[in-house]
């Protein structure tokens, strides 16, 4: 019997792991020499209530390893949904990641960020060899809970938490579900409630249609952006598709591997196969819009678009 593990593509393996939605954190520490380190990590998880233990994992290639190993404490900063830039900042290799970054001093002088959803300040409890990562276990000595909406990571892109729709369209002869009744109450006049419920109701349709075409939501979004802005910088692409830089680079590589994108003299170009895929993607969007908004006139649609753009500008 051959007990060796089957060979697998690390990129595809990590892509599959991305189906598990998780929160985004920045883990920080300060070494005995005063050096401060911080890394963006989505491997945070709970371990035990008694004693209160949590874990996260650190790439063995990380230059921050020696500091985390020798520090008495580390702090897990759970990012809020509006802290994408902070996440991207600490995901990039830099000489001094804390230059110009406001922070407080926690236990063991580990940096603590304000505006987060919460934080866990931990004593170094145990470090376990886990393949190409170190599994870092910490014993929580202090925590703060600010209950901010968290930043979420799913399928290679940033996401945010939305309330799950509780009701489905009722079958013939059944009582109208509670969520439908709410549309005829005072809550039904709340624009924020309506926007959230509208996204909940419509977004899964696009995701499933794009998956049927062999495209992940993050890949289809990126291809659509490149169709409109082929010369966009990496930072602009990050902003447009809400993805970490590594995931943008991986998605670009995937689009190239699928033959939808090519590089000519360092410039990105959508290939004929890419344009063919784009036509299919835009057709799904066009058909969905026509179905959803068939009862609106052109003038009403323009007002609707203006309202959405005003909401986006308020970010």
TrEMBL record:
GO molecular function, one term: FMN binding
PANTHER family (alphabetical): FLAVIN REDUCTASE, FLAVIN-DEPENDENT MONOOXYGENASE, REDUCTASE SUBUNIT HSAB
Presence of keyword Transit peptide: no
UniProt record similarity statement: Belongs to the non-flavoprotein flavin reductase family.
Tree of life domain: Bacteria
Domain Flavin reductase like: 17-160
Descriptive protein name: Flavin oxidoreductase
Organism: Halopseudomonas phragmitis
Keywords from the UniProt entry: Oxidoreductase
Pfam families in alphabetical order: Flavin_Reduct (PF01613)
Record keyword Oxidoreductase present: yes
InterPro entries listed in its UniProt record: Flavin_Rdtase-like_dom (IPR002563), NADH-dep_flavin_reductase (IPR050268), Split_barrel_FMN-bd (IPR012349), WH-like_DNA-bd_sf (IPR036388), WH_DNA-bd_sf (IPR036390)
């Amino acid at each position: 019997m051959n007990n060796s593990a089957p060979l697998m593509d690390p990129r595809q393996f990590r892509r599959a792991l991305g189906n598990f939605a998780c929160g985004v954190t920045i883990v920080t520490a300060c070494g005995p020499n005063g050096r401060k380190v911080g890394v963006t990590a989505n491997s945070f998880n709970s371990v035990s209530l008694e004693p209160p233990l949590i874990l996260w994992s650190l790439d063995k290639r990380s230059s921050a390893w020696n500091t985390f190993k020798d520090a008495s404490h580390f702090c897990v900063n759970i990012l809020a949904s509006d802290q994408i830039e902070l996440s991207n900042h600490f995901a990039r290799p830099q000489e001094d990641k804390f230059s110009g970054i406001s922070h407080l001093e926690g236990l063991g002088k580990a940096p603590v960020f304000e505006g987060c959803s919460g934080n866990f300040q931990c004593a170094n409890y145990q470090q376990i060899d886990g393949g190409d990562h170190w599994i870092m276990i910490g014993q929580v000595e202090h925590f703060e809970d600010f209950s901010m909406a968290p930043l979420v990571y799913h399928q290679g892109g940033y996401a945010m938490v939305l309330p799950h729709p509780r009701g489905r369209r009722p079958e013939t002869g059944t009582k109208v579900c509670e969520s439908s009744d709410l549309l005829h109450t005072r809550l039904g006049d709340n624009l924020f409630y309506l926007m959230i419920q509208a996204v909940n109701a419509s977004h899964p349709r696009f995701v499933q249609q794009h998956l049927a075409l062999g495209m992940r939501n993050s890949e289809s979004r990126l291809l659509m952006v490149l169709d409109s802005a082929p010369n966009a910088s990496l930072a602009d692409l990050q902003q447009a598709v809400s993805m970490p830089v590594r995931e943008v680079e991986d998605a670009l590589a995937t689009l190239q591997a699928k033959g939808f994108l090519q590089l000519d003299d360092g410039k990105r170009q959508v290939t004929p196969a890419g344009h063919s895929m784009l036509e299919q993607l835009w057709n799904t969007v066009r058909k969905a819009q026509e179905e959803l908004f068939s009862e609106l006139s052109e003038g009403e649609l323009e007002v609707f678009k203006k309202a959405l753009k005003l909401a986006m500008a308020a970010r």
